[in-house]
From TrEMBL:
This is TIGR03086 family protein. GO terms for molecular function: metal ion binding. Residues 15-137 form the Mycothiol-dependent maleylpyruvate isomerase metal-binding domain. It holds the Pfam family MDMPI_N. It comes from the Bacteria. Signal peptide: none annotated. SUPFAM superfamilies: DinB/YfiT-like putative metalloenzymes.
Amino acid sequence: MTNTSTERLTWRQTLAESHRILEAAVAGVGDDQWTLPTPCSQWTVTQVVQHAAGDQLAYASTLGFGSGPDFDPFAPSGSVDGSPVALVRDAVERTADAWARTDSDTAPTPLPHGELPIAVAAGACALDAAVHAWDIAVATGNPSPLSEPLCVELLEVAHAIVEPLRQWGAFAAAGATEADDSAETRLLRYLGR
């Protein structure tokens, strides 16, 4: 993705890029890496994949498309019937389709926040996908899939939604940052990673 520091991504670009990197991170998992630990406390790579797919399906369902996940994304089993790659691809395709059909100024979310401005609602969906792509990539020894322009957008969304979610353990306490830290570092530390 070509971008200068002054260009901003639209919410649709942010969402598409987040979905792309989630799919790529899952496709990059080796056969012997599905049970590796991740930055998500006590979850394996497979469990993070299940959680990420379930969250995407929850967004699609909340937008009125599909019935949502048929499992609890917050208690992933660590066992996927079929291909984890196909699970994520299906979830991303359904969610992308749901967002493509959304054209109002606000949108419902599965978050306790409820309805949010469209850029924040879609950004929350993107944040979930992108951060779990990072979790999977890091756990499997792959480079970070996060770009600086994407992190700039996601950090703004994170500041709008994360604080109330910390009380449920969705995010650890924010870490310290320095003024010259990259947007990626600031985002990951803000999310407690």
